[in-house]
Predict the 3D structure of the following.
Amino acid sequence: MAELKQFNTPGRDPNWCPGCGDYGIWNAFKRALVTINIEPKDIVIATGIGCGSKINHWVNTYGFHGLHGRLIPIAQGIKLTNTDLTVIAVGGDGDGYSEGGNHFLNGVRKNINMTYFIQNNQIYGLTKGQTSPTSDEETKTKSTPEGSHDSPIHGLSTAIINGATFVARGFAGDMNHLIKLMGLAIQHKGFAFVEILQPCVTFNKVNTYDWYKQRVYYLQKEKHNSKDKIAAIGRGMEWGDKIPLGILYQEEKTLYENLHSEIKENPLVKQDILNIDISSIFEDYM
Amino acid sequence: MAKIIYNRKECIGAASCAAVCPEFWVMNEDGKADLIGGKEISDGIFEREISDEEKTQAQKSVIACNKEAAESCPVNVIKIEE
């Protein structure tokens, strides 16, 4: 059985601001890995750039800290190379929806068996407080002194429309709910996407823990059918006075990796490449 | 006498208590906060009393420190009873 201490990094503690939502996500993440009983040696965490993207520095698994917004292609490349690994991408709302927006749109279209956790604090925190793609309209920051004039991205609905097969939302302030949600997402066979609401206690003084607590509600207590795609897209558009938490959408679909004969039976990393003769390919061009 | 009551089960490990009141709060290796000197009175609920015998001035600063810890806790799992 996996134990919590296996995922700890003694002597190296997170340097997030005290009160940051990243702590709740980090704690829930490690506990979710224990709950679903995966060993650290079988896990790779791919991250982008941002405060939350430093999470793989403080979880004792394999990790790849990539460029801004590039965590999905890194994660998908790792997964397609070694399908035996549990691959999890973690990054922020700016990283995933802006710098990585193209990768997000196209990554969810491939039903590769991986998980993507996006930490949404509605601000660029690491760069000291500019509007992000999820900032509400009229949000005033250093980059938008007159207030943001842009419509916020609805990431959950976008993911559902474009093919993600597990789409959910959690909240850093409800760790027990988040542990279960993260566990279910990692166990899902296919592309699982979870947006996690979290405050930035330093640079976002509007969307605080209390702001979220007053608005979130749990889909499991509603009559929501997570197999109804249209209803799920509608839930994903909800924002403002009521914000849904839980599984919005889930479907079973053939895995991308099972549609490719090269890796269907055996991961690339386990295939013998010593006796491959590619000279016949070159002959076609001679 | 004052009393600190801490619901460790609901702690998310945000570390704000340990940042503002390190004499009483420390982060455990499991990622959650520990109330130094706290006694578990029921499953996951810890208490620590601040006695009247302590000097008034010291007691005030101790209570102020822990009130700040309670106010900074994002999930409100620290209570101070006076």
About this structure: The interface with chain B takes residues 4-5, 8, 10, 13-14, 16, 18-21, 23-24, 26-28, 30, 172-173, 175-176, 199, 201, 209 of chain A (CB under 8 Å). The first helix of chain A runs from residue 21 to 35. The domain at 4-283 of chain A is CATH 3.40.50.970 (Rossmann fold).
